[in-house]
Specification:
2 copies of one chain form a homodimer.
Chain A (H helix, E strand, L loop, with lengths): L8 H4 L1 H12 L11 H17 L3 E6 L6 E6 L8 E7 L19 E3 L2 E3 L3 H22 L5 E7 L9 H7 L1 H4 L3 E4 L11 E6 L1 E10 L5 E2 H4 L6 H11 L21 H9 L4 H7 L14 H6 L3 E10 L8 E2 L2 E10 L5 H15 L5 E11 L2 E2 L5 H14 L4 E5 L5 H8 L3 E3 L15 E3 H19 L2
Parallel strand pairs in A: 3-6, 3-7, 7-17, 8-16
Antiparallel strand pairs in A: 1-2, 2-6, 4-5, 5-18, 8-15, 9-13, 9-14, 10-12, 11-13
């Protein structure tokens, strides 16, 4: 790595960068919880300060109606140099269940080369190495090899409800030739990979009511509807015995993998025991019949119940027939599924299955994100491949990522190809207790982020 | 009612009795919530004071390991007079959802002749009129027509986990010829009834874990087990398409109704529209195929899911595959079902249905209560029938009540027939927001409680 533009920079600035990382991670910028709105704002202001200190210009905290985003740029690379917009986010997931954390989620520590904290990898760490890469290049060369724009969102973890509107409102500010998303991962440190596709997301909260009040189970139980059972029946009915989603027409628009895509996916290393262990020790795999695990998590659409609740959840027993219940479901979409069509299909599915007289309230959550694919023959993808090979020592595999985010809107609204440089690992426990970032990946990410700008500047 | 022993007593003591009722109802003696343990104790001490002021003797707060019970007696009726033990309870249900109460649950008010408060009818009101009946008889006659024992439990609402042990430990103190339970209801003020059977109760909390941590739904969703779905599938599987409980052998011990019992039950007035309205406006009836609604709520065994939870329940969406979930289920039992057999059957049912590798923790809740029947040819039942007829103006119907309680243990351990004098009404919203007691029923209950002692003293 000695010939890389930022070789040695991480070592030289080690103490300051770790201290900065910790300070940022101490801000509980949980976008899902209105009680943390001021923390999300504090995190945005912290980020703005980092961008200014890095030597970037036009730093601005951008109001969105939700968590604020942060913008900065450096636009002096000269005629002919491409403009690159780097995307990250500074908001984080909730931390419950709190008692499963080995150390407090907002009191970061580094243990055995891993930084433990909410937001460590998702996405403050991955945003920080981008900021530090710009800072390092400016410090060493006095300039950047490209025109750089940094956009750090503040409501990615709640589904970016205002992000597309922000992009549209600020389209000239964000105009660019290439987008680099810094919020993904790779298969393993010795199996580097980059994402060339991202599933979309449509999510809903469904609230059910079967009576005006909870009823005494001894007086009414056995004769009246039970909201817990109505909710459970709906959750159970979401999939058939073959693990297929039962929404009408759900798979109609799904484009099959090409033989080349299928061959590439099948060539990925996959060790079931390692996969089970890294997936929080799950005891077995399951899913849509006829597909491999890598297909199920990357290229197939899914319906995942992320929450289910009805009746009494306190200690002991309460002898009621619950009057209210509900569930939250997230659908992952793949090309060419369309969020609005899935929305309509889900409503039709509910209308068909909720018994008459049970009231149902459907709340779309997260705004709806269409699935995205990166054109793999774009020269910028070549620059990314060379960068990853230079830093990790191996040509990266191409993957499709199961996750969703604002990436699709970035590419579509800004009309630019989207690259994914991400150093996360499958067992980083994002969205779960004990989220971590492997520090060696962070330092490599810093070097790679700088080198990618160099490679993109070379065209 | 002019020739009844306590005619006019309620009017004379109106202000004091209502004030006493309100003071007791202001104590939030929620036995399910450990944070209210001191309130349960405070309620016991309040009750003990009432018993002393009534002129009863040997007043004692009895420790149980859970919420304390209260005891008092008056044993000077002389040779040949029967000993009657009156049972009530002073603990109450939780109050959530709090925002559905029209007035604060522990700030009692009387509106349109109804007392609104948690515990109004279940069971402080029904206990208070028993205490006041004894007080009134002692005040008016200087003596009682029977030897009287009052036992007021403090953990009925959590399934009386220590009650049978208390009965056994204090068997000589509680020895009696007749038990009177003051914790039930009647069909309507103009359709008085008394309970001659009570379903039993076996309840469980089931906790499931499918992974050590919640997983990101984009990275793992579609390939790994989801604890919400496991919980939902179990809840759905509890009943078959005919509404029958699927536990192995669940119905084997159920004794069919005799033709006379069936004819009596079928003769009860039943108006479906009124029933739906009084059941919190439920939109339709359902239940075990082949049985009427009155059979389903009174004489058939049931399985009711009282709580169901998994994953994220906060605002918005959280894109996880939940690692934990669970449910709480209450089985109502009828003669001759045996709690321990249902316990074993439920465990076998779970073992068969929970996928291997999903961890499951089963916690019995409430201790297990066997179903109970009162012998309707006992002379004491005749005394109760005469009393109800004298106060409400009609011969009562015999019902079997769906609820459960410590009544079975009382009858079995003390070897005495159990009478049910209860003034609750089907739409009293017990265990729900806006619990109420119809004050006219309370005043009638006071007169009836006194008259029943007179009738039992006459043999």
């Amino acid at each position: 790595m000695a010939d890389l533009a930022l070789a040695g920079y991480g070592e030289e600035e080690h103490e300051r960068i770790v201290s900065t990382l910790f300070d940022w991670l101490r801000i509980p910028s949980i976008s899902a919880d209105p009680q943390h709105a001021s923390d999300v704002r504090g995190s945005a202001e912290f980020c703005a300060r980092l961008l200014r200190e890095a030597g970037l210009e036009n730093v601005a905290v951008l109001e969105t109606g939700g968590g604020p985003a942060v913008y900065a740029d450096w636009l002096h690379a000269g005629r002919g140099a491409p403009t690159v917009l780097v995307y990250g986010h500074h908001d984080v997931q909730p931390v419950d269940p709190l008692d499963e954390w080995r150390s407090p989620p907002f009191d970061p520590v580094i243990v055995d080369g891993e930084c433990l904290a909410r937001g460590a990898i998702d996405d403050k760490g991955q945003t920080l190495y981008q900021i530090e890469a710009a800072r390092g290049l400016l410090a060493r060369a006095g300039r950047l090899p490209v025109n750089l724009k940094l956009l750090v969102e503040g409501e990615e973890e709640v589904g970016s409800p205002n992000f597309e509107a922000l992009l549209r409102a600020e389209m000239s500010r964000f105009a660019c030739d290439i987008v680099v998303v810094s919020d993904t991962g790779m298969i393993a440190p010795d199996v580097p990979s980059t994402t060339v596709g991202m599933r979309g997301l449509v999510a809903f909260d469904v609230a059910l009511r079967s009576a005006s009040i909870d009823l005494h189970s001894g007086m009414w139980g056995g004769a009246v509807p039970n909201a817990a059972r109505v909710a459970a029946d709906l959750v159970t009915a979401l999939h058939d015995d073959a693990g297929r989603v039962t929404l009408p027409g759900f798979y109609d628009a799904v484009r099959p993998l090409s033989p080349a895509e299928k061959a590439s996916l099948d060539s990925h290393p996959f060790n079931e025991a390692e996969f089970l262990a890294s997936a929080g020790g799950v005891p077995y795999l399951e899913g849509e019949a006829g597909y491999t695990t890598l297909e199920r998590i990357g290229v197939r659409p899914t319906a995942e119940v992320v929450g289910l609740h009805a009746g009494y959840a306190g200690p002991g027993i309460k002898t009621i027939v619950p009057a209210t219940g509900g569930f939250k479901v997230a659908f992952r979409l793949v090309p060419e599924q369309v969020p609005s069509e899935v929305d309509a299909s889900f409503r039709a599915w509910l209308a068909e299955r909720v018994p008459p007289g049970i009231s149902v309230a459907i709340t779309p959550e997260g705004g709806g994100v269409a699935p995205a694919l990166t054109p793999v023959d774009h020269p910028a993808v070549g620059a990314l491949v060379r960068t990853i090979e230079a830093v990790w020592g191996k040509v990266p595999l191409f993957t499709r990522e199961g996750g969703s985010g604002p990436e699709e809107a970035l590419g579509r609204v800004l009309g630019a190809p989207v690259l994914f440089l991400g150093v996360g690992l499958p067992d980083d426990r994002i969205h779960a207790p004990n989220e971590r970032m492997v520090m060696d990946q962070f330092w490599k990410g810093l070097v790679a982020a700088g080198q990618l700008l160099v490679a993109l500047g070379e065209g």
